[in-house]
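User: I'm writing a tutorial on reading structure tokens. Could you give me a worked example: one chain, its sequence, then its tokens, then a sentence or two explaining what the tokens reveal?
Assistant: Sure. Here is the example chain.
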Amino acid sequence: MNDDMGTDAARVYENLFAPLRGDSVWDVQIPGYLDREGRVPRFEPLGRTVYLALDSGGYLRMGPSGDLGHLSLRLVGEVEFPDELRDEDADEFSLSSCRGHFLGDDAVPQRIVTIRYALNSESDPALATVRCAEFEFHNKERLFIDPSYPWGVRLQGAGAYERWLREVRERPESAGPVREYVWTA
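And here are its predicted structure tokens:
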């Protein structure tokens, strides 16, 4: 990626993230379905999409883009019904809350203060795709999102972004040369 593309990319992501400035996240949600075949219904995550539920209404939707191991980011008005469940015999759609894992134990919405994201040569600013992203919240909790996980999107906490960078530097063939960017609220 040349410097001009890097500058243009940063501008695209600044425009995407700008509406998050001053907003708070009240939940981290994973779509799935209820499996009612057992004695007790069980939530089965679909694992390919994650939503940050915004205090202002709406969501930041994040999911894999194509087969390139990229994360697509876009603001949406509501959680989208998964294509996997569109069949009339499909299971009951549900959402799982991961708030306690990534936003802290209390129910207080958290402002996003920093977003760190990595781009590589296959990242496409026109489609708002990144290689991976980390969100840091006001209470210092962190959420790392990596779309190259075999079962969907991998969610991890503090330190995961640094581990991912270390691995990419040790094995550049896993993601190609990456450029890091930081957005601050």
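What the tokens reveal: DSSP finds three helices and twelve strands in the chain. The mean pLDDT is 88.
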